[in-house]
């Protein structure tokens, strides 16, 4: 799976949009971009994923550049409860094989939302 | 809502003990996973299962075994606990097929003394 690079930490004011970047310059054509987050002392939580088109759900938006070498997770109106470690993961989605289920979490970005 | 539950949030065991960590999911997912999380090392896959009685080794299976007798339940077994198995253990489940997101349980913090 392609390696990702994220900033170590970011701050955001409550109510503002939080834009979390991720670089994945070695991504290949059959790799998806996934975002998870982990609030302190809890298990990781799925946020969103995409291949090449921008995606939006009730939690966030995912913007993937045209060359797919980077992406940005957007939390449109951050709240204090969004303070967490955010992980950008790039992985191959195979129809079969034994590696398709594995998620490789890097160090992530610590997002702190301030009042 | 998908729910993944783990039998304990905190567990303290002695070196050499046999330890069972239980995970149950209520969404009829085919896939289930066991990870451990350590500071500076991220999450690492220990084992996963894609069907009842089926299992595959992950990246760090040594010292662990698993059991999946029923679709909703996936157990992680430490045959003889050692101090280097002190960690946060996370269970996850997902639908069959690689594209689907994984749902995680709250984790079990295991301390082996």
Q: Your description of this structure?
A:
The complex is a heterodimer of chains A (115) and B (113). In chain A, the strands form 2 sheets. A 5-stranded mixed β-sheet of chain A has the order 1-9-8-3-4, with no helix packed on it. A 4-stranded antiparallel β-sheet of chain A has the order 2-7-6-5, with no helix packed on it. With 115 residues, chain A is mostly beta strands. In chain A, 0% of the residues lie in helices and 45% in strands. The radius of gyration of chain A is 14 Å and the shape is globular. Chain A has strands at 9-13, 18-23, 31-38, 45-50, 55-56, 61-64, 70-75, 84-92, 109-114. Chain B has 113 residues and is mostly beta strands. In chain B, the strands form 2 sheets. In chain B, strands 2, 4, 5, 6, 9, 10 and 11 form a 7-stranded mixed β-sheet that branches. In chain B, strands 1-3-8-7 form a 4-stranded antiparallel β-sheet, with no helix packed on it. The chains are: A mainly beta (115), B mainly beta (113). The A-B interface holds A 32, 34, 41-46, 49, 91-95, 98, 100-107 and B 4, 31, 33, 35, 37, 40, 42-43, 45, 48, 50, 56, 58-59, 90, 92, 94, 97-99, 101-107.
């Amino acid at each position: 799976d392609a390696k990702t690079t994220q900033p170590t930490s970011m701050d955001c004011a409550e109510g503002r949009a939080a834009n979390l970047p991720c670089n994945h310059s070695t991504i290949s054509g059959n790799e998806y971009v996934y975002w998870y987050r982990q609030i302190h002392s809890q298990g990781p939580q799925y946020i969103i994923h995409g291949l090449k088109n921008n995606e939006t759900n009730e939690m966030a938006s995912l913007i993937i550049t045209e060359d797919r070498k980077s992406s940005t997770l957007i939390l449109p109106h951050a709240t204090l409860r969004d303070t967490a470690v955010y992980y950008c993961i790039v992985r191959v989605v195979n129809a079969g094989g034994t590696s398709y289920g594995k998620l490789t979490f890097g160090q992530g970005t610590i997002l702190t939302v301030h009042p | 809502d998908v729910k993944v539950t783990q039998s304990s949030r905190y567990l303290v065991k002695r070196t050499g003990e046999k330890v069972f960590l239980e995970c149950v999911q209520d969404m009829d997912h085919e896939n289930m996973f066991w990870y451990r999380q350590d500071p500076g090392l991220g999450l690492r896959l220990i084992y996963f299962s894609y069907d009842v009685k089926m299992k595959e080794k992950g990246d760090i299976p040594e010292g662990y075994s698993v059991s999946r007798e029923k679709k909703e339940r996936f157990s992680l077994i430490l045959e003889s606990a050692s101090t280097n198995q002190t960690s946060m253990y996370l269970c996850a489940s997902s639908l069959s097929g690689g594209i689907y997101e994984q749902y995680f349980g709250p984790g079990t913090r295991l301390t082996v003394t």
